[in-house]
Amino acid sequence: MTAPEATLVHVERTHYPPLLLRHPGNPILTRKDWPYSINSVFNAGATLLPDGTTLLLCRVEDRRGLSHLCAARSRNGVDGWEIDREPTLMPSPHDYPEEIWGIEDPRITFVPELQRYVVTYTSYSRGGPGVSLALTKDFRTFERYGVIMPPDDKDSALLPRRIDGYWALIHRPMTTLGSHMWISYSPDLRYWGRHRLMLEARKGAWWDANKIGLSPPPIETSRGWLVLYNGVRHTPSGCLYRLGLALFDLEKPEKCLRRGDSWIFGPEAPYERHGDVDDVVFPCGYTMNPNGDTINFYYGAADCSIALAQAGVGSLLDWLDANGSCERRQRAEDL
Ligand code: BMA
Questions:
Q1: From atom 12 of ligand 1, which residue's Cα is the shortest distance away?
Q2: How high is the pLDDT of residue 236?
Q3: Cα dist. 43→18, 40, 75, 86 in Å?
Q4: What is the reported pLDDT for 177?
C-alpha cells in the first residue's frame, strides 16, 4: 500500500534533520515591498547597527537587468522594513567604469579598528565581474575604493580584524584551475598580495563540483572561522545552488580544519525552486542574536526575493564534528 503523501514528507524530513530553519514568514522581502519600480530584490548583505536595528543592503535589479544596492532597516530583522525611497548605492560608471553593468551581491563586515562598515561587492564590468570595496559609517554616504580584484572575481568579504598585521579578503577568482575560494592580504585595503588557495570546488558528481564561493562573511568562533559557502552543480536543466560548511584556522585562515561532505541547505521551498533563476539559495549576510548563538542568515531565493533561515553556531560546529573531515593541505604547485 502506498503511504499517504503527508507521511512521505514527514519521513523525508526526519532523515535529514534541518540545520537551518526557514522563517515561517518567508520570503520576508519581495519586489512588492519596494517603494519604487524594480524587477527583483535578492542577495542582501546584513549587519546590526549600534541601536540593534537590522540593516540589509539588498541587491535590487531594475527593469533593464542592471543591479544597484538599496538599504532596508527593521527593528526585529523579520518585518516592518523601512526601505530607502531611492537607491542607496548606484553604479557610478563615469568614475568607476568597472560598474558599467551594475553592482551586485554585497557583503558587509564591521571593522572595529576602522569604526567603519566595509562593503565588498561585485562590480560588473565589460571584462566580467570584479570585486569592489567601499567604506561607510551609516549606509548613507560611502567612500569608494574602486575595484580591488580584477575580473573574473566575485563572492568576497573582508575579515573583521587584521591577521598578522594584514587585512584578509576572501574571494573567488575564476582561473584555469577552476572556481575556487582564495584569500589575499593587504596592508591598507588597496594593494593586495600573498594570494592563497583556501578551498577548492570538488570534482565529478559532487554537489559542489563546478563552482564554490563564499556566502556571508565568515563567523568568528572560539574554534575557528565558520564559513558557509555556496556550491554549484551543473545539471542538464541548469545550475543547482546549495550551501556547505567549513571551518578555518583563526590565525591562518587559509588552513581548512574541517569541511562537511554533504550540503546543509538547498532549494526546497517554492520561492527557492522557482523564480528568475530556478533552484538558488544564496546568502550574502548574517546577524547574530544577543544570545551569541543563533545566527540569522539572509539569503536570496531564486534571484527573486529575500528569505531568512536560522541556525545555532553550536549545532553547526557539532554537525561539522560529526560530518566533516580534514581537508588535504594545498600543495605549493597547486597555485
Ligand atoms: C551567481 C551570482 C549570484 C546569483 C547566482 C544565481 O553566480 O551571480 O548573484 O544569485 O549566480 O543566478
A1: 277
A2: 92
A3: 22, 10, 20, 18
A4: 87
